Amino acid sequence: TIGYSLYILNCLISNPSFTVIILTPSRELSYQVFNFFSVLASTCSQISIKPKLIIGGFSSRGQSNTMQDFGYNIYVATVGKLLYMLRSKAISLNEVDLFVFDEYDKLFDNRQFQSILKLIKTSRSEWSSRAHFLALSATYERTQVKALSSAIKNIKVVTHDAQEVDCDKSSSAKQDINLQNLAQYFINVSG
Question: Which of the two ends of the chain, N or C, has the fewest CB atoms closer than 10 A to its terminal CB?
Answer without folding.
Answer: C
